[in-house]
Design brief:
The protein is 20% helix and 47% strand. By secondary structure, the protein is of the alpha+beta class. It has a single domain, classed as Tetrahydropterin Synthase, Chain A (2-Layer Sandwich). Strand 4 and strand 5 (88-93) form a beta hairpin.
């Protein structure tokens, strides 16, 4: 029977701006302070651990650092026109035009930057690192509002 570990650290999160293409309220540019929780199921290793919490923490910090204090743009979104101009990124969505400094933008291979899609995004990165585990990722965008993706 596999063991299960859970990792959550309130210091590991990211603050990002985003919008949901075509959504009435969330189509407006806004932001969240996101937090992540991860569960892993698997067998014990030679050190009698499923995975060293330090290793998981290191990887989560790498992922969140790239997203922190950035504008998240879903590169697979329909109805989004994106153009790079010098050191700027122009984004047109539903007759709204945004111009961001290039260094402030992160393109994610997603159809939307919802918590649901972000949980799947984190899951895919962790699954690539540790395919032997059953992985569950929870992304919280506000207290009491979160989404979970699992390969169970």
């Amino acid at each position: 029977m596999p063991f299960e570990i859970e990792f959550e650290d309130p210091r590991i999160g990211f603050a990002s701006a985003h919008f949901i293409v075509g959504h009435d309220k969330c189509g407006r540019l806004h932001g969240h302070n996101y937090f992540i929780k991860v569960q892993l199921k698997g067998e014990l290793d030679e050190q009698h651990m499923v995975l060293d919490y330090g290793d998981l923490k290191t990887e989560l910090k790498k992922i969140t650092k790239k997203l922190d204090h950035r504008v998240l743009i879903p590169s697979k979104a329909e109805g989004l026109d994106v153009e790079e101009k010098n050191e700027s990124i122009q984004v047109i969505s539903c007759n709204k035009r945004y111009l961001f400094p290039k260094e402030d933008v992160v393109f994610l291979p997603l159809e939307a930057t919802t918590s649901e899609e972000l949980s799947r995004y984190f899951h895919s990165i962790l699954k690539e690192l540790w395919p032997q585990f059953v992985i569950t990722v929870n992304i919280e965008e506000a207290p009491g509002a979160s989404a979970t993706y699992s390969d169970e």
